[in-house]
Amino acid sequence: MYIKKQRLLTPGPTPLLPAALHAMMGSDIHHRTEDFRTLYKQVLADLQHVLATSHDVLVVVASGSGALEAATQNFFSPGDEVLVCSAGKFGERWEEIMKAWGMKATVLKAAYGDAVQPEAVRQALAQNRAIKGVFVQASETSTGTEHDVRAMGRAVKETGALFVVDAITGFGTMPLDIEGWGLDIVIGGSQKAFMIPPGLAFLSISPKAWAAADSAKAPRFYFDLKKEKKNAVNGESAWTPNTALLLAFAESLKYIKSIGMDKLVANAQLLARATREAMQPLGLQLFSTSPGSSVTAVRPPAGMDSGVIVKEFRSRFNAIITNGQGSMKGQIFRLAHLGYFDFHDLFAIIAELEIILAANGQPVRFGSGVAAVQNAYMDVALPKAELALS
């Protein structure tokens, strides 16, 4: 009770892979040496492997938002007509980026907690054949909502538009078939399911996107992806790299390869499912109508500000969870599942939530939420035949 280990339970940054953390101590290598070139080539090759794509992959020193901007300025021109799917704070970020770069954006908006429907994308593209790009979040972390990227990809494939997917919290939490689904530019970040600190972003880029880059007129300097591609062939970055994070990334990718990307996704999906099932006996409602597996957004009890729950996790258990963002602050709290989370974490989180609710006057039957998590675990961990014999 008196010793409180800090636990990071947020959808980014996420808990660090220990091997990656240790690897960062070896960062005193120069980035124009053969040691670094070997490291960089390995990272790019392993990244292609875990993303299951033959498309080019590039890494830049930035948060995920830097790669969102790079995806805009390298493949489009000011004045281009684009379609933005916006269903939360990060969809609104796409809107802001389009405005900053002078794009003519048609915005398909869904209410917070809802997803933009693929049919709406199909109709918008049919009504305007001049649209050159479609932008969406695979996972809208601000609301815990997942988009149907596969169906959207089918709609975009019927046109000449590029499909640009922010998968910063989609990678490692949901299936993403980059080539099979026609995802032209897919963006990820280091501090999510890849279990290392913030500071690296990466993009997979299709041949169709590279062809569009040849005629793109937006200015670029630091985020010149053609320059990055040219340098990457020789195992170098265009600018000074974050060597410590690349060493960590190499370990993270090695770990993901060892368990399989499908297992990383399955882990997040199982934790998310168990969390959703735990909310019902606690009398809590999910916020999203299309919940994803990167994070579960939950409404607090009627009359309670979600900030109370967030603060109680911190003060009672030194555990960091997240409130709602923007207009959703006080209306939801969010529990993360992506990356280096396991059932041990979830058992504790739900038990702590039960205590917090009880301490704030909410009727709770202790163990009811935890039991739901245990049952979800047993469904997968113990075959039904063994249960029948026990």
Characterize the structure shown:
It contains 14 helices and 14 strands. By secondary structure, the protein is of the alpha/beta class. The chain has 2 domains: 7-13 and 261-389, Aspartate Aminotransferase, domain 1, CATH 3.90.1150.10; 18-259, Aspartate Aminotransferase, domain 2 (3-Layer(aba) Sandwich), CATH 3.40.640.10. The strands form 4 sheets. Strands 2-10-9-8-5-3-4 form a 7-stranded mixed sheet, sandwiched between helices. A 3-stranded antiparallel sheet has the order 11-14-13. Strands 1-12 form a two-stranded parallel ribbon. Strand 6 (139-140) and strand 7 form a beta hairpin. The radius of gyration is 22 Å and the shape is globular.
Brief overview, please?
By secondary structure, the protein is an alpha/beta fold. The protein has 14 helices and 14 strands.
- For the termini, the CA-CA separation is 36 Å
- Identify low-pLDDT runs: none
CATH superfamily of the largest domain: Type I PLP-dependent aspartate aminotransferase-like (Major domain)
Helix/strand-derived class? Answer: alpha/beta
Supply the number of structural domains.
2
What strand line-up does the widest sheet have? 2-10-9-8-5-3-4
Order of helices and strands: EHHEHEHEHEEEHEEEHHHHEHEEEHHH
SS strand fraction: 5-15%
